[in-house]
Each structure stands twice: as C-alpha cells, then as structure tokens.
Sequence to fold (454 residues):
Amino acid sequence: MMCAVVLLLVILTDGVCCKVCSYQDVLDYLNLTADNSVFKLTRPVLDHTHTTVVKLDIILYAILSVVEKTQTFVPFIWASAQWKDERISWDPAQFCGINMVSIPKDLIWKPDLFIYEMINKDDSPKNPYMFISYDGTVFCDEDMKVVSTCEMDIHKFPFDTQECTISIGSAIHCVEEIRLFPFSNSSRATQFSREVMKTQGEWEFLQISVNNFNVSFEDKTWEQLRYTISIKRRPLLHVINFLLPILFFLSLDLASFFIADSRGEKLGFKVTVLLAISVLLLILNDILPSMSNKTPLIATYCIVIFALMLLSLLETILVMHLMEKNSQYQFSLWDNHGDNHGDKHEEVNTENFNTEDEKQICCSCICKASKKQHELLPVVEEVNNSCQLGESHVLLLILDELKKLLKMVKLHFICREEGVKSVHWAKRINRVFFIFYSITVLLFLSLIFIEWNS
Fold:
C-alpha cells in the first residue's frame, strides 16, 4: 500500500513537471502567441489614465568617427529599456520557479522611442529577443550604430572638446502617457562606458551626463531623455603634421634675414616658403567645415603667419630695390666716365695731330724763311702769327678738358652720396623690420597658445 502511494506521487510529480516546467507553458498560460494581437496593439495599461514608465540606459562602446566637415558623430552604443506591461503576470511557484521568459520582440507592445539626432538608418545586427518578467516587467536591449548630427565648436581645433547629444523620446505619446527616466545616473553611465570602451581613435572619451528635457507643442508636452557625450580630441597628429611645419617655415623665414640682401637667393627663398604655407592652407580647408560660428584659432594662426611672411617678402623687395638703386648709380657713373674719357681722348688726339701738323708746317716755313730772309720778310711775319694762334688753341683745349674733369668729379661725388644714402636706408629698414618682425611673432605665438590652453 505504501509503495503504491509513493509510486502515484512520483507519477503525479512527473506529470506536473512535464506539464508546467517549460517556457511554452508560461506563454500558453498568458495566451502570448503570434496570432494574438491584444498584447501589441495598444499601450500596456489596464486603465488609460495610468502612465507607462520607461527606464533607459545607454553605455558607450566605441567612438567610430567624428566628421567635422559634415558635423557628424558616429558612436556605437548599447541601449537598454525596461517598462511594465500590466496585462502580463504569473506565479513562478506554479511554473517550477520560472520568473523570466525570452520572447520575440514583435509579440508585445514596445514604446515608440527614437533618437532625434539620427540621420541614417541603423545597419547594425539586431537582437531579435527580449525578456518579460513574472510581474510584467519587460527588458529590451539593442546594440546600435548611431549616425547623428552634432553641433561642433571648432574654435580651438585641434585642442577642442566636443559635446554631442543623443536625445531619446516618444514619437506620439505625450508626457501624460509615457514618462522617461534614466536607469543609471551620469557617474554610473560614465564608469560603465569606460570599463567597456573598445576603441576611441582620435578622440578621448570624457564623460556622459544624463538629464530630462521637455518639448511642448500645441498644448502637449513630450518628454525626452538627453545623453550628452563629452569627448576630447587627441591633438598630437595635427600638431606634428600641421602646426609644427608652419612653425618651422616661420623659423626659416626669420633665419632668412641673415642672408645677404645683395643676392637674389633671399627673395627666391622667401617666395618658396610662402608657397609652402599656401599648400598647408589648402590642406586646412579640407579639414575644417565650411560654416562655423567662430573663426577657428588654427585659421587665425595660419593667416597671421602667412600675412607676416608676406610682409617680410615685401620688405625684402624694398631693400633689394634700394640696393639695386645704388648699383645703378655706380654703373651709370662708370658708363659716363668711360664714354667721356673715350671722346676726350679722341678729341685730344685729333687736336694733338692738328697741332703737330701746324708745328711742322711752322718749322718748315721758318727754315725756308731763314734762307730767303731778304726776299720773303712779309711771309715770315705771317707764319709767326699762325704759330702763336696754334699755341693759344692748345691752351684753350686744355682748359676745356679741365672743366670737363671737374664736372665729372662733382658728378662722381653726387652719385656716390646718393648710393651711400640708399644703402644706409636699406640697412636701417632691414634692422628695424627684423626687430619688429621678431617681437610680433613672439607676441602672437604667446597669445595664440594661451588662447588654445584656456
């Protein structure tokens, strides 16, 4: 008799275990099937005045990209939501202690939550299941690649810190129907994100702050849960590839003041450095967005350095012009001296030739006259007069030569004085500009780096 009772209890126990200890039995008890649309058509409340409370949680897995040109922020996040379905409940004791069941997501109602900043459809793999608890609590989580807009302030690029928001809210249900609350506070969400962070790339994750935000429109108010993600750019790559080369070019431009101004290499060197800065400005144009509220400091940095180097180039052209002016004075003086000397030499030779001829004629005439003094006395007097006229003409030529030499000496001293003045002004301008240029560069670099670090 005792053995029969024990056998009956075992059979009954086995029968009950096989009947109620499966997840399908729970779903059958709830009548939660794909054909039953009661659980997915309307908001899961027994009274329409009840508010559905949705608790959200977001953890940042990775920062995939931040594009300044299009002002796009692409994080990879884990989003979790939980709410209560008042139509679902069971007693775990009647089902072998089953207190949670996983079901497909399309079997019951889900809150119509979406991200306001989302601009592209999420193409990450979807989790097809969610959990329901014995008291009607529904747990749903999703891995999402969020492609969102982000208003970026690039004033301090590449030493900037950006804050991008992910605003989550209901599409049609106002605040009287759905309330949104964060499951984790700001410090907890930040800690979890740092623990599970996979990759950050160019950006360094700082923190996540969570707050509620209400939007009103036509006497209705919708509640949003806003997650603000703070990230900081790692500037090393931009410093090495952009800022330092410009600083090196500026140093070369300063060093070019020690090149002699009389040579053309200085001007060509400065033009080459200026063209190199122009190429870097083109690269900067591809990095920065076309529209910005404030002028980026890096643009100011490049433009001011470009302007200083352009001013330095103009100063070099002015100094070389003054130096060339001195050279022109010297060449003009040499040319005039050479031409005058050649002309005067030819004139003197011609005149000497004429004088010698006259002297020979005079001598021959005198010899002949000595033989025939008694016959040609009138002729002798005429020859003597002609010799005196030839000597006076030679003296006049010598006097004219001396006058021309005196005039040439005066011209030489005038040209030399003008050349000395131009060289003196060129050296003074070069010295003053170098001091001004060095002080301006030091002050500007100090101010720009202070502004970057503030």
User: Anything to note?
Assistant: The CA atoms of residues 33 and 107 lie 7 Å apart. The longest helix spans residues 377-453.
